[in-house]
Write a structure and sequence with these properties.
The complex is a heterodimer of chains A (224) and B (409).
Chain A (H helix, E strand, L loop, with lengths): L1 E11 L4 E12 L4 E5 L6 H8 L7 E6 L2 E2 L5 H11 E4 L11 H10 L5 H14 L15 H13 L5 E5 L7 H16 L3 E5 L3 H4 L4 E6 L2 E2 L6
Parallel strand pairs in A: 3-8, 3-9, 6-7, 7-8
Antiparallel strand pairs in A: 1-2, 1-4, 4-5, 9-10
Helix pairs in contact in A: 3-4, 3-5, 4-5, 5-6
Chain B lengths: L5 H13 L1 H35 L7 E6 L17 E2 H10 L5 E7 L4 E5 L2 E10 L3 H4 L3 E5 L4 H5 L4 E5 H8 L8 E4 L2 E10 L4 H4 L1 E5 H9 L3 E2 L1 E5 L5 H19 L9 E5 L1 H43 L1 H9 L4 H34 L14 H28 L2 H6 L1
Parallel strand pairs in B: 5-10, 7-9
Antiparallel strand pairs in B: 1-12, 1-13, 2-11, 3-5, 3-12, 4-5, 4-8, 6-9, 7-10, 8-9
Helix pairs in contact in B: 1-12, 2-10, 2-12, 2-13, 10-13, 12-13
The chains are: A alpha/beta (224), B alpha+beta (409).
The structure holds adenosine-5'-triphosphate and magnesium ion.
Magnesium ion binds next to helix 1 of chain A.
Protein name (chain B): ABC transporter permease
InterPro entries (chain B): ABC3_permease_C (IPR003838), MacB_PCD (IPR025857), Macrolide_Exporter_MacB (IPR050250)
Pfam families (chain B): FtsX, MacB_PCD
């Protein structure tokens, strides 16, 4: 599903250049449930953003579902994001002026699904995350855990090939974290590829595979 | 592309209804700009109308020529001869200067004449004039018609009466076509004149100059001559004045340099001053108008910048969910244009309502405040376009930046 070859990425400013990814090779099969771990600043988020087509890389090759994701126009990038990827952020990134169900249905708007069907699908996924009764609430009226579940429902609503989550439990307490992880597990059991960035060992342990990143490269399993 | 993308507009209306404060602030800025523009321009127009009314008679570039007495001997003729114009002078000037748009002579009948109608018998002053006098004195006809060339040529006994004469003599009765006696001659009333400025003019009766000369004078004398110089410039008016003096000097045998022989009252200076005053008012109005529009543009641009900044995070989220930059620009701008246009329209509407309310004020220097519909709509359009352009630049930038960066803000 995901194939990375020799991915390099540097953050360049006017005077400095910070090499963050120094040759990432990684394969993730369809239906895998994996986590990426590593110390702060090791480049986890950078990698995940590249996987989510939210950021570009300098060299190497990234294939997603057999297609090369390189030198995409803004329009193409938007299309692939919408078609292939579900993204869950640490800080939820819900639109505060929209209700839970409106937030969940937003990706379908950009897929030009009509309003009635949007609403139906959004309600379906809100039900899956256990928030059907909260559909009409604004994000500010929801707890952190509830907001993250809304965000997960939103990432699922387009039925993406890959679900990417950058520290989805980073802002949640332990109990809520495990509820959310349970949700990811459930999604994975439905056949979705799920990739989670975390720096918490017991969160990573829920997944089937742990990928360690250090100094901009992936550690081989032997090194772990 | 559909003509009206209902999904998009639905999304926009949600955004508008959920951001009441932001919408209200944007709308208020535009509303106020257009409202003030309409009020200022309308009031300025009212001021101009009022002043135009005040200086109505001075707004005509007229030239008046009166006969005097010679103060110099000429060709063996003595001083102190009275110079009196006649129909030959009138005809010669008229033929020699076809570029003069209006030329008329005037005969004053020395005493008031007694007007008799039914049982009424009242004294009024009567003036005999050429038809062109209407344009030289700016006479306003409220009923019937003015004296015309045919009346003049056929020496028809017709009269135009002033408004006060009409009230005194006819009251509620329609005066047109009625027969009146002026002295011992019968006239038909053909028109009523009204002059808000001059009571004297409203107590006057006007008859054709040919009638005045035949019936009351028995000669072809003309008391004085008046003419309008049209769009001649200062030099041309000067040349015309000298040309007329030469004709009169030749006809009546006096020295053209003799300043007492005739008197010329050139109103060109007054005319020019009034024109300058109007020009000043117009320039001021334009200054105010352009100023308000510029202030409006700056205000709207500022609001647009703030709105786009305010929405950067939202834009990032939308992009992460698969929004194309184009759809984002279109959304932000459509919303902005919608609000700007609605607010501009409301500002225009309320401005016109206020103008209507103050149009009841009719003081000496203020009447009929009004605004050209075209000017108002142009102003709204300029603000909408300026707002769009002002929003376009930051919206494009916001749509271009990486969604991760945008969401962080
Ligand atoms: N937009 C950016 N511009 C410049 N430098 C950046 C940018 N984003 C990240 N970095 C730097 O790149 C390095 C990797 O950042 P990244 O966010 O990928 O780390 P991370 O592994 O996700 O860390 P954390 O666990 O703290 O989230 C860090 O040193 C960070 O300071
Ligand atoms: Mg990170």
């Amino acid at each position: 599903m995901i194939k990375l070859r020799d991915i390099h990425k540097a953050y360049k400013t006017e005077f400095t250049s910070l090499q963050v990814l120094k040759g990432i090779d990684l394969d993730i099969q369809e239906g895998e449930f994996a986590s990426i771990m590593g110390s702060s600043g090791s480049g986890k988020s950078t990698l995940l953003n590249i996987l989510g087509i939210l950021d570009e890389y300098d060299s190497g090759e990234y294939h997603l579902a057999g297609q090369l994701m390189k030198d995409l126009s803004e329009k193409q990038a938007a299309y692939y994001r919408n078609q292939f990827i579900g993204f869950v952020f640490q800080s939820f990134n819900l639109l505060n002026f929209k209700t839970a169900v409106e937030n969940v249905s937003l990706p379908l708007y950009y897929r030009k699904v009509d309003r009635k069907l949007r609403h139906e699908k959004a309600m379906h996924y809100l039900e899956m995350v256990g928030l059907k009764d909260w559909a009409g609430h604004l994000p500010t009226q929801l707890s952190g855990g509830q907001q993250q579940r809304v965000a997960i429902a939103r990432s699922m609503v387009t039925e993406p090939k890959v679900l990417l989550a950058d520290e989805p439990t980073g802002a949640l307490d332990t109990k809520t974290s495990h509820e959310v992880m349970g949700l990811f597990q459930k999604i994975n059991e439905q056949g979705k590829t799920v990739l989670i960035v975390t720096h918490e060992q017991d969160i990573a342990k829920v997944t089937e595979r742990i990928i360690e990143i250090q100094d901009g490269v992936i550690l081989t399993p032997q090194q772990v | 592309m559909k003509w009206v993308d209902t999904e998009k507009w639905n999304e926009i209306f949600i955004s508008i209804s959920k951001h009441k404060l932001r919408t209200a602030l944007t709308a208020l800025g535009v509303f106020w700009g257009i409202f003030m523009l309409v009020i200022l321009l309308g009031a300025g127009q009212g001021l101009q109308n009022g002043i135009a009314q005040q200086f109505r008679s001075d707004a005509i570039n007229s030239l008046w020529i009166y006969g005097g007495s010679t103060s110099l001997e000429f060709n063996g003729l003595p001083k102190n001869r009275r110079i009196i114009f006649n129909n030959d002078d009138y005809l010669e000037i008229s033929n020699r200067f076809p570029e003069v748009p209006y030329l008329a002579g005037r005969v004053y009948l020395s005493n008031n004449l007694i007007l008799k109608y039914k049982d009424k018998s009242l004294g009024y002053s009567v003036r005999a004039i050429h038809p062109d006098m209407r344009h030289i004195e700016n006479i306003n006809i409220t009923k019937g018609r003015f004296i015309n060339e045919k009346d003049q040529r056929d020496i028809r006994k017709v009269a135009v009466i002033g408004e006060i004469v009409r009230q005194d003599v006819f009251g509620g009765e329609n005066p047109i076509g009625k027969e009146i006696m002026l002295g011992s001659t019968a006239y038909y009333v053909i028109g009523v004149s009204f002059d808000a400025e001059s009571d004297r003019a409203q107590r006057e009766i006007l008859i054709p100059i040919s009638v005045g000369q035949v019936v009351y004078q028995g000669n072809e004398n003309i008391s004085n001559l008046g003419l309008v110089t049209g769009d001649m410039n200062e030099g041309e008016v000067q040349a015309l004045e000298e040309g007329i003096i030469d004709i009169l000097a030749a006809n009546h045998q006096f020295n053209p340099a003799d300043e007492r022989a005739i008197r010329v009252n050139n109103r060109y200076e007054d005319y020019k001053n009034v024109q300058n005053l109007f020009f000043g008012i117009k320039a001021f109005l334009w200054f105010v108008g352009v100023g308000s529009i510029l202030a409006g543009i700056v205000g709207v641009s500022n609001i647009m910048l703030i709105i786009v900044k305010d929405r950067t995070k939202e834009i990032g989220v939308r992009k992460a969910l698969g929004a194309t930059p184009q759809s984002i620009i279109s959304m932000v701008l459509s919303e902005a244009i919608f609000i700007t246009f609605m607010a501009g329209y409301m500002g225009f509407f309320f401005g016109v309502v206020v103008l209507y309310l103050i149009s009841g004020v009719d003081s000496d220097f203020f009447r009929n405040p009004e605004i050209h519909l075209g000017v108002g709509f142009a102003a709204v359009l300029i603000l909408v376009i300026a707002g769009t352009l002002a929003g376009l630049i930051p919206a494009r930038q916001a749509a271009k930046i990486n969604p991760i960066e945008a969401m962080r803000s």
